[in-house]
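Input record (one chain):
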Amino acid sequence: MICIAVVDDEKAVCDELLFFLKEYEMKFKMIFDISIYYNGENLLADLEDDIHFDLILLDIELAKINGVEVGRHIREINQDYLCQIIYISSKMGYAMELFQVHPFHFLMKPIQRETLFSCLGEYLRLYSKKDFFELTNKNVKKRIPI
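The corresponding structure, as predicted from the sequence alone:
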C-alpha cells in the first residue's frame, strides 16, 4: 500500500486528482491510501502526529503557508527525505525555490491524466519495489532500504 496525500486549496482539483488516483489503482491493480488536505497547516499537523506519507501531491499556491514552505518543513524540520513530493501549480516560476526541497516532479495545472500516470509509474519504478526497514526515533520515522 502506498500512502498518498493530496494538498490543494481548490476542492475541484482535489476531486480530480482523487478520481485520477482511483482510476490508476483500478487500471494497474494498486492499493493507495489517499488523504485529502485543503491547506498545508493540516498536513503539517498530521505529519507532526506521526502520520507518514510515501508521496505528496502538493499545490504551491496555498492560502497561509505555501507549498514550498510545507516542503521545506518536511525536509528540514521533520528530516523526511524519503517522502517524495510532486509539486502542482499553474505557474512555472518556482523552479529555483523548489530545488531546495528536492521534489520528485512538477506538474502543471490543469493536470493531465497521462502526465500524472507517467509520473506515478516513474515513482513506482523507483520506490515501490524496494524493501525497507522502518524505525521511529524521537517522533522521526526513518526508512532504510534493505
